Amino acid sequence: MLKNWWQEVVVYQIYPRSFKDSNGDGVGDLRGIIEELDYLEKLGIGAIWLSPVYQSPNDDNGYDISDYEAIMTEFGTMEDMDELLAQANQRNIKIVMDLVVNHTSDEHKWFIEAKKGKDNSYRDYYVWADPSIDGRLPNNLPSTFSGPAWEFDEDSGQYYLHLFSKKQPDLNWENPEVRQAVYDMMNFWIDKGIGGFRMDVIDLVGKIPMEGITGNGPELHKYLQEMNQATFGKYDLLTVGETWGATPEIAKLYSNPERHELSMVFQFEHIGLDQQEGKEKWDLKPIDIAELKVALSKWQTELGNEGWNSLFWNNHDVPRIVSRWGNDGKYRIESAKLLAILLHMMKGTPYIYQGEEIGMTNTAISDISEANDIETINMYKERVEKGYSKEEIIASINVKGRDNARRPMAWNGSQNGGFTSGTPWLSLNENYKEINVDQALADPNSVFYTYQKLVQLRKDKPIMVWGDFELVGTADQIFSYYRFYEGEKWLIVTNFSNQEQVFSSDDDMLEVIIENMPTDFSSLKEVTLKPWQAFVVRTN
Ligand code: GLC
Ligand code: CA
């Protein structure tokens, strides 16, 4: 496989609303990001994935776009965007834009036109259906944000499809005009010098709603090949698809370079491990390290040279990793570092979600009035109606709700963590007084410096990028694997527990590459791991 820049970098995801507010209105913005580029340069990242910054009525915080070629007023102006691009490029940081084209906002001009009537030239940009014979919904497709995926339009007597909120009508990708309009818009951004696209729920664009098909539709890959040709294929860009329904076989269809589709996809197998099979994400089940090992190592080995992995623990939709697979109490720092080492040592392109690099945690709420996220609020209403107790719903929200990741970034110990001088749009976790960027930068043992070291090691050591992966058989609570590259061999060892564990190696553990606490080797082949201990060693 040819070597590409996007395999060698670490990507940092910014959720602009919550990153940094420069003007005191309580909402993060583009100038806030520009102010913190030096911080990101210090971390060493090579690209930023910017969650949507386009004009939007914010029904789903920017994932409902009303104008793809304008900046959300709260976030700034197109001049600010151009300056962000220029300033980031000066620091060798590329900007990867969020491409949300499964749907638009209902306030997009295409939809405003389409609603005008069946013969409007934009009507077919969206998915419309007549009521079923008995006058009811066209079929029983559900919306991800609760309730049916169909909304009735009184004026025309038809329903339109919305796989997400009512204010996010689905685009009709079967219409070639829609696809062309999307490609033109992508080229507008490519001409500005962006570094690529993260493609929102891209596996839904091949849907055939009347057959009940949403993910992985039959024309999906044809569309992506067409998109590649019409837009980014001529350039050297990072493209990553958000694909909840991907298996390793499917991931190869997207990311095998010979197929000319995407650089890589986000797979979600490890994200679903705390969910009961066949149920909703809110139906929790206890996590099991053994399952995490199976899921992650399967993806490490099965793509081979026919695809490329993305590596992530966090994004704006999933809870904070240290609260999920780590111990966010007594061992917060140790476990946050362990999780960083475990992930960054795997094969693929690592992504860091804002705040992960300082070990930010989930934020528990006690009442639904403290929630902001549309998914959470709709689910709450639905489950109250179904008779669930408020306590059990809130308990699920505290484990899985999207606001956990969306609480503003804590920059220092001053009021509102230095995120804003005004009133934040969503309150911060109260632990910002202890967990914040200033604190992390001042403490040489902070989580931040482990991330910084991992990012630097990746630049210095090709084995981290290109080495092959092999899982080591161990006790359940230990997650260990090898990387191999051109005669070099590294061993990664992590203890996912609050107890000591003994680890014995088949190889001599010769030289520590990185560790999250001083490692006490009893011999070349044995070590007693302290709770949440992690290290990487060169072996023979
Ligand atoms: C993706 C986004 C999520 C959004 C949804 C609809 O899953 O990551 O935040 O709500 O798509 O656009
Ligand atoms: Ca602002």
From TrEMBL:
InterPro entries: GH, GH13_cat_dom, Glyco_hydro_b, O16G_dom_2. The keyword rRNA-binding does not apply. SMART domains: Aamy. CDD domains: AmyAc_SI_OligoGlu_DGase (cd11333). Keywords: Glycosidase, Hydrolase. Pfam families: Alpha-amylase. Residues 13-406 form the Glycosyl hydrolase family 13 catalytic domain. Belongs to the glycosyl hydrolase 13 family. This is Alpha-glucosidase. The lineage of its organism: Bacteria, Bacillati, Bacillota, Bacilli, Lactobacillales.
